[in-house]
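Blinded run. Sample ID left blank on purpose so nobody reads anything into the name before looking at the predicted structure. Input follows.
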Amino acid sequence: MSIKDNVRKILSELPGGIELVIAAKTRTPAEILETIEAGAKIIGENYVQEAQKAFDAIGKRAKWHLIGHLQLNKVKKAVKIFDLIETVDSFKTAEEINKECQKENKIMPILIEINSAKELQKAGILPEDVEELVRRISNLKNLRISGLMTIGPETGNPEDARPYFAITKTIFDNMKSMNLPNLNMMYLSMGMSNSYQIAIEEGANVIRIGTKIFGERKM
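Blinded prediction complete.
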């Protein structure tokens, strides 16, 4: 099946209210454009530099999410490209995004990335530290805390991720009741090509899919 066929199939099978983010790491602007022509509305990029090339070719034909770790020296560029940053896991990063957004007169929606399985090699804030971070970030006027993101353990068995999706959903629900400025909990971004169906069962309303659309990643 072609890239377009894969996108259409996934979109046709998704329950209502679920947003598909195309995980476009290493993909060419032409391949990304195929997904947009098939109905994809959000492109997810891991690296600011790669995103810049794709954005220059495609522009505002889709919304752009940053789904990889954001280095502080890339924040200035990121603020100009992305409509939403899914991977904020420290106050320092949030502060830098806020500062650049002030210069651009822009309000940036962000998701807090949670390291739900507490894996040493992964980015993300630990579940027990989320509330304190959210309270601090909520005072930054050019940011909107719009939800949470997690990756969960990537094992051969997608069921292994279920408990960690459930943990993230519980935090999401608890945060919804927090009365803080600049907090509007809308998005729960969980699940990738092998685990998105379980993520949806556990409450995700944003999924990030690459392999199931493009095939195995070119190294």
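Unblinding after everyone has recorded impressions. Residues 26 and 218 are 7 Å apart (CA to CA).
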